[in-house]
């Protein structure tokens, strides 16, 4: 993670370095010398990780130190700076970066909220210092709470009216908010009173906000992926797609007066939500195998739009990974179905998806920021029924299923103290398909042991069921031997 200038618009000097922990600093409250030695070592490790731009590691060290010495100003200050750096870094990442180098973990909003929590406690501990107010203002700006950020800066100026950093911060903040207000209130030209001011087309499924402005339902929530404010007047909107209803009267007027245009808009909307069997929206992140479940946290605006459209359609999308050799999505991927969708008030989604079937990408293009592909479905070349080859395959699947049950039993016994691993094993056991479907069973078998993405991608390319079963058995034996060595 690079330590570039902060996108929040405030000076980033306060986040370029952290404070060192001295023996005289808060040391009297510790009962034992060795515990303070441990505390000092954790802060040193955290500071070294911070200066080397390993923010996740730095936060882990500061958190462990905070558990030993709660409410320590130095520890809170350093952790707050790390949270702000991560949140700012994630906000600056381009869509291309997220595809080529996908990141796991918390999203920028949660990091900013954690920074605000530390900064608020820091203000109480160091109310006579300017730095906590700068931290608090930066966290609030990352959360787009500009009025509260201005109050934090003004509170800091009451402590030190001559602080150059706070004065410059206030000027930049006022300039940024003035620009936002001007841009938000600049109404675009309308060709008709029934046109949406976002897409400039006839309103479709119109929604009228509390501030009195009407937009296409899909256009409004696409805009709210980037900000929870009215696109025209910048009023904060407390609505979400699950509870928001269309304006029935306005919708009826449009249907009566513009039936042909309305039919065209309806057809256009359906083409974006019902992709059909040979057209898939793509979530570019990782390799998923058929019969595998994955949890996803969707917070990028383009993917929030994609998920809403999918949930209005067939609940299915494709998951692929970027091929490092070409720089484009890999040729093969897996269709996944959204089995659980939990929309959050801030527009994010927590998803549970389950792999269904393989596909090969024929053509791929961008649509509203995310990728869409025309695909062909891929299946193994299975031997004809009632032949020796088919009987051999069934016998191989049955024997592999017996070994898999024994393998899971041993893995449970080895992981009896690891609740997370036990939950994974029970879940995998429940997902086991019948050996009478060798192709689907082979994917489940190969996915039992966690493999690296290139190995999972190879499994999607293979069209020989026996070969995939062999690899699955090898992976399981390797995993079992690795546990025994440990």
Automatic annotation (TrEMBL):
Pfam families: LON_substr_bdg, zf-C3HC4_2. Keywords: Metal-binding, TPR repeat, Zinc, Zinc-finger. One of its GO terms (cellular component) is cytoplasm. TPR repeats lie at residues 39-72. Residues 277-480 form the Lon N-terminal domain. One of its GO terms (molecular function) is ubiquitin protein ligase activity. This is LON peptidase N-terminal domain and RING finger protein 1. Gene3D superfamilies: 1.20.58.1480, LON domain-like, Tetratricopeptide repeat domain, Zinc/RING finger domain, C3HC4 (zinc finger). Residues 196-234 form the RING-type domain. The lineage of its organism: Eukaryota, Viridiplantae, Streptophyta, Embryophyta, Tracheophyta.
């Amino acid at each position: 993670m690079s330590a570039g200038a902060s996108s929040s618009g405030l000076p980033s000097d306060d986040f370029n370095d952290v404070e060192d922990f001295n023996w005289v600093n808060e040391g009297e409250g510790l009962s034992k010398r060795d515990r303070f030695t441990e505390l000092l070592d954790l802060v040193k490790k955290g500071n070294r990780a911070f200066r080397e731009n390993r923010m996740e590691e730095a936060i882990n060290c500061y958190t462990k130190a905070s558990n030993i010495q709660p409410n320590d100003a130095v520890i809170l200050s350093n952790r707050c700076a790390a949270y702000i750096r991560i949140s700012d870094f994630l906000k600056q990442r381009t869509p291309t970066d997220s595809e080529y180098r996908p990141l796991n973990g918390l999203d920028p909003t949660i990091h900013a909220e954690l920074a605000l929590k530390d900064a608020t406690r820091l203000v109480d501990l160091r109310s006579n210092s300017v730095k906590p107010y700068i931290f608090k203002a930066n966290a609030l700006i990352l959360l787009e709470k500009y009025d509260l950020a201005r109050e934090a800066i003004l509170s800091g100026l009451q402590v030190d009216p001559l602080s150059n950093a706070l004065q410059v911060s206030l000027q930049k903040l006022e300039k940024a908010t003035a620009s936002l207000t001007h841009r938000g209130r600049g109404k675009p030209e309308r060709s008709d009173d029934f046109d949406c001011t976002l897409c400039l087309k006839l309103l479709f499924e119109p929604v009228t906000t509390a501030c009195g402005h009407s937009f296409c339902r899909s256009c409004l929530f696409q805009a709210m992926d980037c900000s929870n404010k009215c696109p025209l007047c910048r009023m904060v909107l407390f609505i979400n797609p699950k509870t928001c209803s269309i304006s029935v009267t306005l919708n009826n007027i449009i249907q009566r007066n513009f039936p042909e245009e309305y039919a065209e808009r309806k057809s256009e909307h359906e083409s974006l939500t019902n992709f059909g069997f040979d057209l898939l929206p793509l979530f570019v992140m990782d390799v998923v195998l058929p019969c595998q479940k994955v949890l996803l946290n969707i917070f990028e605006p383009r993917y929030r739009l994609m998920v809403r459209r999918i949930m209005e359609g067939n609940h299915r999308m494709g998951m692929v990974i970027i091929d490092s050799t070409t720089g484009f999505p890999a040729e093969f991927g897996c269709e996944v179905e959204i089995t659980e969708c939990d929309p959050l008030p801030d527009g994010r989604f927590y998803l549970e998806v389950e792999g269904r079937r393989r596909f090969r990408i024929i053509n791929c293009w961008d649509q509203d920021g995310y990728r869409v592909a025309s695909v062909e479905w891929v299946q193994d070349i299975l031997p004809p029924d009632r032949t020796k080859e088919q009987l051999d395959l069934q016998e191989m699947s049955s024997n592999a299923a017996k070994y898999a049950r024994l393998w899971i039993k041993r893995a449970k016994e080895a992981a009896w103290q690891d609740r997370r691993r036990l939950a994974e094993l029970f879940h995998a056991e429940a997902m086991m398909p019948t050996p009478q479907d060798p192709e689907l069973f082979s994917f489940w078998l190969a996915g039992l042991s966690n493999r690296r993405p290139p190995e999972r991608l190879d499994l999607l390319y293979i069209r020989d069921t026996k070969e995939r079963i062999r690899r699955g058995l090898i992976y399981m034996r390797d995993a079992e031997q690795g546990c025994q060595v440990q």
